[in-house]
Design brief:
single chain, 456 residues, alpha/beta, Rossmann fold, 2 domains, 5-stranded parallel beta sheet, 3-stranded antiparallel beta sheet, 21 helices, elongated
Length: 456
Amino acid sequence: MTTVGELRTSGHVQRSVKTEVRDNLLSRLRSGESRFPGIVGFDDTVLPHLERALLAGHDLVLLGERGQGKTRLIRTLVGLLDEWTPVVEGCEINDHPYVPACVRCRRLAAEQGDDLPVAWKHRDERYGEKLATPDTSVGDLIGDIDPIKVAEGRTLGDPETVHYGLVPRTNRGIFSINELPDLAERIQVSLLNVLEERDIQVRGYALRLPLDVLLIASANPEDYTNRGRIITPLKDRFGAEIRTHYPLALADELALIAQEAQVDGLVPRHLIEVIARFTRLVRDSPAVDSRSGVSARFAIAGAETVAAGALRRAALAGEDEPIARICDLPAVVPTLMGKVEFEVSEEGREQEVLEHLLRRATAETYRHFLGGADLSGLLDKFDAGDSVESGELVSAGELLRRIGPVSGLAKIVERLGMTGESPGQAAAALEFVLEGLYLTRRLSKDDTHGTTTYRT
């Protein structure tokens, strides 16, 4: 279908973008199909509120601390649009061929009638996004006079001299403003008409441009940002305000790391759990500014840092199979310190705080996986006065040689959820046991310049 006449003949029915989203969401609800793919931990909390807001046809604000997946959630809404939608060919603001809104398209429709050319736009092209920054202008969002068009001979009073901003260019789609409170209050005022009257005004033009747009904003809680606020009239025009949160359950934290971290099987499950528990302990720590939050990116970056340590060791020590071990964990502390905002009273103790919480997370994970396990095969070696030296550059094969045969190793590897009997997995399991025995005060440990020695 390439003309509006053919479009009408096909029986195409025009729908507003909010009706389109509502209908497609209802269809997925009935079929049990995933509505928001890739979103973890919001099923029983955030998503029901979001679904009600979309079914009600509301513009909305997602409110939550950094790294809670607000932007990721907003972007999944694109999947609720029709895959393809007709637009007037060449229109800057995606006018529907049945009811063209801009001056250009109305003129063409009057001149060409049923021969008005139609193009098809994919749903991915119907999403617009703007990060609110101090230099954002009304022209960026709404539009301004285009001096090039004026220079071409049009008069200043000609509405076709307008260069449309991001919001009208996302007409008949979804537009997102990230960190809305950071937008200057005088710029927020320009959105009032968009949300209530659904039109725009540009520099005093007698221009009424009815917009069909679903507007979604994200914001940090005002008591944390202190950089700005959403002005009251604009708040009132949003139909819904929805609070997001960090993963409530450890299983959700683990699922999020598994989904987002690029570790390619380099990090065993027990180390992923250490990082997840570490993240949760940091969030709950009184030494950390709870208003700033600890982003999900904290855990993801931690897992990727541990995987990188395994790759580095494999390259330097000549390992065939890089597998992360406990010795790779300490590197996450300096790497992640910049992602955490501490209370003023903890100034100078930041690294000490994180190292303590990492030890707690390791101990909790050890008890979870190996609490009550028979570790006598390993402890017997230390009872005889042996010591074991490990480190971030000690290969798996070398570590196993230093430890020697251990009875019951297969059961330990099995309890840690690892399959196979590779040297890398065996070394990862044994080093985890050694660290766990140290943290439960059954062994002692000396750390010196990247080298760790375990002894009784």
